[in-house]
Specification:
Largest sheet: 8 strands, mixed
CATH class of the domain at 103-278 and 320-358: Alpha Beta
Number of strands: 10
Helix content: 40-55%
Order of helices and strands: HHHHHHEHEHEHEHEHEHHEEHHHHHEEH
Structural class: alpha/beta
CATH architecture of the domain at 103-278 and 320-358: 3-Layer(aba) Sandwich
Length: 447
């Protein structure tokens, strides 16, 4: 037992390496994970004291645990069996396929990343690019929502800045969980977005098993009280107006809702508008196509960001005008289902669309575009100021006079050559009629 054993050096190194790995995996790593987990729980407890809607345990669960819980849910087991039967494959193969979908969808929320990095970045970026205004006319109704209910912010989709702007504005209320499209599934962006609590969706997928896995995750998150933010239009508005609701995510939530028990679901309409949408030219161009396709790329976005950063450093950068956000009247799903039996899914989508349209902010550039579109020819500044006077009180941050508001809007539109000024007055550039329509459409229903 105590005899000396001779070993080659390479074998000794290998044994020590295996011993170190075993020690780390069985003793060191669990202890380190437990240490950081305890720190995270204490940090979340402090956060929940100041948040209007506390972060729910479902959102804080380990990603592996959520994936397992999703895969072994009875409804998913049923979906796997049906898929295996319809496709003629073993259930083990269908289970593996469902596992791939679950790993693709389920986020990995990090409270430290969200509140330590994302909120600060969203605040800085929103203020750097826009003068942000919040219409708080319904703020008391939003603040009175029962904290035990699941809150879902439902927004019109004008720009990819929507994610940033709303994250910043509701930072004191809760942590949002977004549904993001395929564009965000690029490494390392995907890791960061998952850490923010977002979940990926394939918007155009017709795979039944995928849809059922996605639906069940959304239903479980809703039942678990996770605060979510969704864009019922399903994509960016191509003409500037608020489009009809696509009932994918809404149908998952409403279709599984039991008005007799469980948490109520409160939809909070959020209306967004901008003096300048960063992607406006791309969206207007896509609207002209039979099958809309965005002619944008990551290198183009990077070049834009680098140029703007350089201008910020040199002090030559200017903001892109105003960004306005309005909260509409909250809608209780329980009350709506009880009062609209049999038509809840389509009814909820249309009701939310109308509540969003009712609080769309009227901003200087969209208002000026609407006035120019309605003119029969060129207009001078005095005529524009006079035409704008009746609408001045609808601007979320009212200017002291219409002249200042029109001058600010014209500075943006003339510098981008959307409007041109000549001896006979100001007119729409013939090559930019679509852009004028795009901005005018965003407020036409309110004017």
């Amino acid at each position: 037992m105590f005899r000396t054993v001779e070993l080659p050096l390479w074998l000794l190194v290998l044994i020590l390496l295996f011993a170190a790995v075993t020690f780390a995996s069985h003793f060191l790593f669990p202890s380190v994970r437990w240490f950081f987990r305890r720190r995270m729980e204490r940090a979340v407890a402090r956060l929940n004291e100041r948040l209007t809607v506390p972060i729910q345990p479902f959102k804080l669960a380990r990603r592996y645990d959520m994936i397992q819980r999703l895969l072994y849910d009875p409804k998913i087991s049923e979906a796997i069996a049906e898929h295996a039967k319809s496709e003629g494959v073993p259930e083990s193969v269908a289970f593996q396929q469902a596992g791939r979908y679950a790993r693709e969808i389920v986020p990995s929320f990090s409270a430290s990343a969200y509140f330590g990095f994302a909120i600060r970045l969203a605040r800085w970026l929103s203020r750097a690019l826009y003068r942000v205004h919040l219409d708080d006319s319904n703020d008391s109704a939003v603040a009175a929502i029962n904290s035990e209910a699941t809150i879902i912010f439902v927004m019109n989709h004008r720009s990819n800045m929507d994610y940033v702007l709303v994250t910043y504005l509701v930072a004191e209320r809760s942590a949002l969980s977004y549904a993001v499209g395929e564009w965000a599934r690029v490494w390392p962006l995907s890791r960061l977005i998952r850490a923010m609590g977002a979940f990926f969706i394939r918007r155009k997928s017709r795979n039944t098993l995928y849809r059922r896995v996605l639906a069940r995750y959304v239903q479980m998150a809703t039942a678990g009280g996770v605060t979510q933010a969704i864009f019922p239009e399903g994509g960016l508005s191509l003409d500037g107006s608020v489009g009809p609701a696509k009932l994918g995510l809404l149908s998952y939530i409403v279709g599984d809702f039991d008005p007799a028990g469980g948490r109520d679901v409160i939809f909070v309409p959020v209306a967004l508008n901008y003096d300048r949408v960063l992607e406006d030219r791309v969206l207007v161009e896509a609207a002209k196509m039979e099958k809309p396709k965005f002619r944008a790329s990551v290198p183009v976005a990077i070049r834009f960001a680098v140029r703007y950063a350089f201008r910020r450093i040199t002090g030559s950068a200017v903001r892109f005008g105003h960004a306005g956000v309005g909260f509409g009247e909250p809608l209780s799903l329980r009350d709506f289902v009880m009062s609209h039996p049999g038509e809840a899914i389509t009814g909820v989508g249309e009701a939310l669309r109308e509540r969003i349209k009712a609080v769309i902010p009227v901003l200087p550039v969209p208002l000026t575009a609407w006035l120019m579109r309605g003119s029969e020819g060129p207009m001078d500044r005095a005529a524009l100021v006079q035409a704008a006077e009746p609408y001045l009180t609808r601007i979320p941050a009212p200017h002291p006079d219409a002249e200042g508001m029109i001058d600010e809007a014209l500075a943006h539109l003339l510098s981008r050559r959307i409007l041109v000024e000549g001896p006979d007055g100001i007119r729409i550039d013939p090559g930019h009629v679509d852009l004028v329509d795009y901005y005018a459409n965003s407020v036409a229903h309110r004017l």
